[in-house]
Amino acid sequence: MNQRLLTTIISRVLLVIGAGLCLVFGYWIIQMSLSPVSVPPPPPARKNVTFDARLDISKNDTFTQLHSIGPLEVDVPPTGRENPFAPAVAPVVVTAPVAIIATSTPVTNATSTIASPTSTIPSR
């Protein structure tokens, strides 16, 4: 047989088998979706609970175990800052070995002119 004819026959047989598998799978999906679903029986009915407002429950042991007399003391743990919305005060860290003295004249640098600070930072 010719190689081309053999390839055509094999491809058509595979196409027919694939279409058949698709049809079987589709039928199975439809069958599963339309089949009735088994619903378990409802649980047995329980006795209705009634409430009688005339009964005094304060003598019940369970109630006396849960009942506390008066307010209880609560220890307040430390929670951080007194006012969390106030701006934080940063500690001043001096790293210069000499004191910087405030002057009203600008300090001239080789690259720029920098205004002097307005306060004196003490040296260590």
Question: Could you tell me the strand content as a percent range?
Answer: under 5%
Structural class: mainly alpha
Q: SSE order in H/E notation?
A: HHEE
Shape assignment = flat
Q: What Rg is obtained from the alpha carbons, in whole angstroms?
A: 45 Å
pLDDT averaged over residues: 75
Largest sheet: 2 strands, antiparallel
Number of helices: 2
DSSP summary, beta strand count: 2
End-to-end Cα distance, whole Å, is: 104 Å
Residue windows where pLDDT falls under 50 for at least 5 positions = none
Share in helix: 25-40%
Strand order of the largest sheet: 1-2
Describe this structure in words.
The protein is mainly α and 124 residues long. It has a domain at 9-35. Helices cover 31% and strands 3% of the residues. The protein has two helices and two strands, in the order ααββ. The protein has a two-stranded antiparallel ribbon with strand order 1-2. Strand 1 and strand 2 (113-114) form a beta hairpin.
Quick synopsis:
With 124 residues, this protein is mostly helical. The protein contains 2 helices and 2 strands, in the order H-H-E-E. The chain has a domain at 9-35.
List the helices and strands and how they pair.
Blueprint (H helix, E strand, L loop, with lengths): L2 H32 L26 H6 L40 E2 L4 E2 L10
Antiparallel strand pairs: 1-2
Q: What descriptive keywords fit this protein?
A:
124 residues, mainly alpha, 2 helices, 31% helix
